[in-house]
From TrEMBL:
Record protein name field: Acetoacetyl-CoA synthetase
Keywords, ordered alphabetically: ATP-binding, Ligase, Nucleotide-binding
Keyword Ligase: yes
Acetyl-coenzyme A synthetase N-terminal domain sequence ranges: 38-93
Domain AMP-dependent synthetase/ligase: 96-471
Organism of this sequence: Nitratireductor indicus C115
Gene Ontology molecular functions: acetoacetate-CoA ligase activity; ATP binding
Length: 652
């Protein structure tokens, strides 16, 4: 593969037929001037936010009353108000399609497979809406779900949104305290949980856990137990205030859905920060901001069109579930998978893609890396001819994994590395289907988002590494944080570093092609000798080595400075001897720089990660320094932290 050129370039036909191209023609009419390339289109979208977001509303066919004003107090952050006169309903926009075509296809590992048409989905939402209203649910009340990624979860979210209730979810593998740390703050009226779930071919009953949770959530009037393992009715009978989902909705006849149109900024979702440094922050997102931003990203950046088969591997505790659900608004069929992506082996998601004709295949950078290290070559074993886009997020996609996608998964495919977060329930930088894909680079900033890289003094940088910021307000900024009446926590989270500027907490740099490289979280940035180093730069080197399955890196306070410490999880049968340590240091020195070379390398048997699969450098840094990790419940594998406590080599 010629690394001097792009890894992939869209054909002339692909560029001509892209939704982004049609939108650009409309934007030129609105702007009153030519917009010859993506850079020009993006500049206009930031300079004329009123014109841009108004055009997005019209072009994407938002259902609702737009109102006269588009943006008020646009230079205030926070404080800007988009579409202040508008009235809309999020669920009405997602349920715009009807008929017998598939709205959702669900697989629970190799145990469960189900299909729902658009009419069947609307019927389920109608019954749920009636049930919720019978329980007194009203606009602003909360519905919380500890659920797998399955059709009932999306239907319940839509029913809540149809009334104007606020939805919040996590996955069923959360511990009792982890659930209470989240939902205890928002006091839900309705609670949903499964009778259990599948993972790695094993069933996990959660009825006992649900009982413990409900005992400490007195606000819940009704708990609905969804049948997944086959004993929902039995489980519900053992839990106070609980009823089997199927039995509960069967009491209501299918009827016409009613949608309560509410202000653009009406709360839709509460999402949670990872919670590894304390009780999770409750981030409140608006119905209008979420809808408009997702429509823009799906239609223009992801190229989703009606009838597409849209897949993202995610749990209900990760914002990518919310992002995936919005695909209904573009009339795509959602492909839902719940369980281990490696059961019974690493082919299960590619089996799903082939069988269902997936057109947009979304996953995590860690999954792609794991497939590579497992020696799989899906292009030789699977028919992936329908896959048009492969998307990666969760952590920076390493350059060798860009290459791996084109060498082993599919050659003619748009590889869209995307990055944003729970904080904005969307992306700051993502795919651009009319542009080439370059090794290791995210293609560009999202339309309408004034993404910049700033230095320590708050000056924009066209070259070099700095803080990722957004210098102008955008619709999917949070409404605020829950129980933060004066916005103090909200301001501290994003606007404390630079006044009136969103500081996202990513360490980033622009490329010569107008793309971006994310070097990791800036709060995990290493500073040996006062030089800022992104942890992803180290991972990109060591994770190329077959001896290393994965790594985690921290800065350890040492001798009035900071030294780099690298922890590695090794492949089976590999030992960390002097030769391997030397090879690791050489790889980092030559591939990154001498500054990146770790002072200490330590082998560990596991690496702690959050429920959404992200490694948690801050928790490791705290435990190495003898500080308490404040919220272990946020971790998928908290026991892994014990490997990092009292390591002798870190005392010298």
């Amino acid at each position: 593969m010629n690394q001097a050129g792009p890894l992939w370039t869209p054909s002339e036909e692909q560029r001509r037929n892209a939704s982004l191209t049609a939108f650009t023609a409309l934007a030129e009419k609105t702007a009153g001037r030519p917009l010859p390339d993506y850079e020009a289109l993006h500049a206009w979208s930031v300079d004329d936010r009123e014109g841009f977001w108004s055009l997005i509303w019209d072009h994407c066919g938002v259902i609702g009353d737009k109102g006269a004003r588009v943006l008020v107090d646009g230079e205030r952050m926070p404080g800007a108000s988009f579409f202040p006169d508008a009235r809309l309903n999020f669920a009405e926009n997602l349920l715009r399609r009807s008929g017998s075509a598939e709205a959702m296809v669900f697989r629970g590992e190799d145990k469960v497979e189900r299909r729902l048409s658009w009419d069947e989905l609307s019927e389920m939402v109608s019954r749920l809406q009636q049930l919720f209203r019978s329980e007194g649910l009203k606009a602003g009340d909360r519905v919380a779900a500890m659920m797998p990624n399955m059709p009932e979860t999306i239907a319940a979210m839509l029913a809540a949104a149809s009334i104007g209730a606020v939805w919040s979810s996590c996955s069923p593998d959360f511990g009792v305290q982890g659930v209470l740390d989240r939902f205890g703050q928002i006091e839900p009226t309705i609670f949903l949980a499964p009778d259990g779930y599948w993972y790695g071919g094993k069933s996990f009953d959660v009825s006992g856990k649900v009982g413990e949770i409900l005992a400490q959530l007195p606000s819940v009037r009704r708990a609905l137990i969804v049948d997944y393992l086959g004993h929902a009715a039995e489980a519900a009978g053992k839990i106070d205030r609980a009823q089997a989902f199927g039995e509960a909705i069967s009491a209501f006849a299918s009827g016409t859905l009613e949608f309560e149109r509410l202000p653009f900024a009406h709360p839709l979702y509460v999402l949670f920060s990872s919670g590894t440094t304390g009780v999770p922050k409750c981030i409140v997102h608006s119905a209008g901001g979420t809808l408009l931003q997702h429509l823009k990203e799906h239609r223009l950046h992801a190229g989703i069109v009606p009838g597409d088969r849209f897949f993202y591997f995610t749990t209900c505790g990760w914002m990518m579930w919310n992002w995936l659900a919005s695909g209904l608004a573009s009339e795509a069929t959602l492909l839902l998978y719940d369980g281990s992506p490696f059961h019974p082996d690493g082919n299960i998601l590619f089996d799903f893609a082939e069988a269902e004709g997936i057109t947009y295949f979304g996953t995590s950078a860690k999954f792609i890396d794991a497939v590579r290290k497992a020696g799989l070559k899906p292009m030789e074993t699977h028919d992936l001819s329908k896959v048009r886009t492969i998307s990666s997020t969760g952590s920076p996609l390493a350059p060798e994994n860009f290459e791996f996608v084109y060498q082993a998964i599919k050659q003619d495919v748009h590889l869209a590395s995307i990055s944003g977060g729970t904080d904005i329930v969307s992306c700051f930088v993502l795919g651009v289907p009319t542009l080439p894909v370059w090794l290791g680079e995210i293609q560009g900033a999202g339309l309408g988002l004034a993404v910049e890289v700033w230095d320590e003094e708050g000056r924009p940088m066209s070259r070099g590494k700095g803080e990722l910021v957004c210098s102008r307000a955008f619709p999917s900024m949070p409404v605020g944080f829950w129980n933060d009446p004066d916005n103090a926590k909200y301001r501290a989270a994003y606007f404390e570093r630079f006044d009136n500027i969103w500081c996202h907490g990513d360490f980033a740099e622009w490329t010569d092609h107008g793309g971006m490289i994310i070097h990791g979280r800036s709060d995990a940035t290493l500073n040996p000798g006062g030089v800022r180093i992104g942890t992803a730069e180290i991972y990109n080197q060591v994770e190329q080595m077959p001896e290393i399955l994965e790594a985690i890196c921290i800065g350890q306070d040492w001798d009035d400075d900071v030294r780099v410490v690298l922890f590695v999880r090794l492949a089976d049968g590999v030992a960390l001897d002097a030769d391997l340590e030397k090879a690791i240091r050489t790889k980092i020195r030559t591939g990154a720089s001498p500054r990146h070379v770790p002072a200490r390398i330590v082998a560990v048997s596991d690496i702690p990660r959050t429920k959404s699969g992200k490694i948690t450098e801050l928790a490791v840094r705290d435990i190495v320094h003898g500080r308490e990790v404040k919220n272990k419940e946020a971790l998928a594998n908290p026991e892994a932290l014990e490997f990092y406590r009292d390591i002798d080599v870190l005392r010298s």
